[in-house]
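Continuing the batch. This is chain 6 of the set; chains 1 through 5 are on the previous pages. Same settings as before, nothing changed between runs. Recording input and output for traceability.
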Amino acid sequence: MANDELLLPMWRNLVLGAWILCAACGDAPTSQPPLPTPVASIELGASAESLLVGHSTLLSVVLKDSTGAVLTNRPLTWLSRDTSVVIVEGIYGSGSVVSKRSGRTWVIVTNEALHDSASIVSGYLFSSVAAGQGHTCGLLVHGELYCWGDNSRGQLADSQLGFKTSPSPVDSTRRYTTVSLGGAFTCGLTSTDGLYCWGSNELGQVGVGLSQTVVSTPVQVSGSYRSINAGQYHACAVATTGAAFCWGNNTVGELGIGVADFDRTAPVQVNGNIAFRDVSPGYGFTCGLAMSDSIYCWGDNRVGQLGDGTTTTRYVPAPIASSVAFKQVDAAAGYACGLSVGGELYCWGNMPDTLDQRDSIPFLAAPSLLFSSIDVSNDFACGVTTTAVAVCWGGNHYGNLGTGTSANSFTPTPIGTTGSFRYVVTGGLHACGLDLSDIIFCWGYNSTGQLGRGFSSQMDSVPRRVMDQP
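Output for chain 6:
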């Protein structure tokens, strides 16, 4: 028999055996992967979160089984109840929450039938606040400008005249480092040292040489400046060289250019070749803090508001009658006050409402207190002591002292809140303070929404938070 014929039965047996073996394999039981441990609880890492507008945060979530063991790599679904306030998406077991605007909403995370939620408060964190006659502005931490209150003269940079009762963005194309509010106009320094003003311009106080009485769009003022202060009807700025420039009303020589005549619609340099640190425009007069820590004043002096011991109106800067070294000066209507380097409060002029005194020579106004800052208005004033206590004094017809009553006070009185403050600013009949947590509180007159509560009212004598803050 040939070899091929001998091998053929052997191949048949091998193929048959392999077929039988494979058939048996197909009938054998196979092992299944174990089922995942059921999720017994789901918990977000925070039950509440504060978030700044335009910023983001991560919310962590913890899944556990019935024994308390932490489970990972489980599917999660994230949801924002109001996507106009925040949006959320899952990233590696966490939820990335991005703030879109101020407001409050809930973020919900779900695993099958289980869910948990966290309250999200989205708002603005301010780095500074300023008050005008009937409007208020604040700068956010990155230089965005928001304002509220009276806009009857375009001082909120909105051509739709009227008023706004909550913080609204102003000039979103620029970032500001300083903002100052006058009677019905606003000025601000940008991060590139550019100065812009807008609002009422009847007396040229916007400073851009324009003839229209209302300027509702920020326009640049010529020059390079390091500080700006807006008064009732005029404004002054200190140039990077230390020279002072003023513009606006000059009826009684408040611009310091040697004459009392007509308004100036563009900056003019103050006479005297004095290097200034800061300049404060009052009502019809001006005071400036020189680099030498001396104070000079000029303009109307009929009630001794220039502090030189006379009632002679002066058209150029004249030193006040004091050898004290000062670190701040602020002028209002008929009087001014300054802080010594050591924090003592000195005032001069006519103060029937604030201190019930009249003196053309600076006098120690609050001997028992030391201040870190002050801000004076026409018939009241406020300050913050070196222990961070906010105090106000003077007329209180609209609760502008923030004491919870309408009683006047001729001595500095703590406002009606226990918080600690960086500083307080005064408007026409309202005031606002920035506390150590960078939260703005306002109180007083609110006829045009200048307290930032979302509504207008007659008054509120209790300091309360401006809305849309974390």
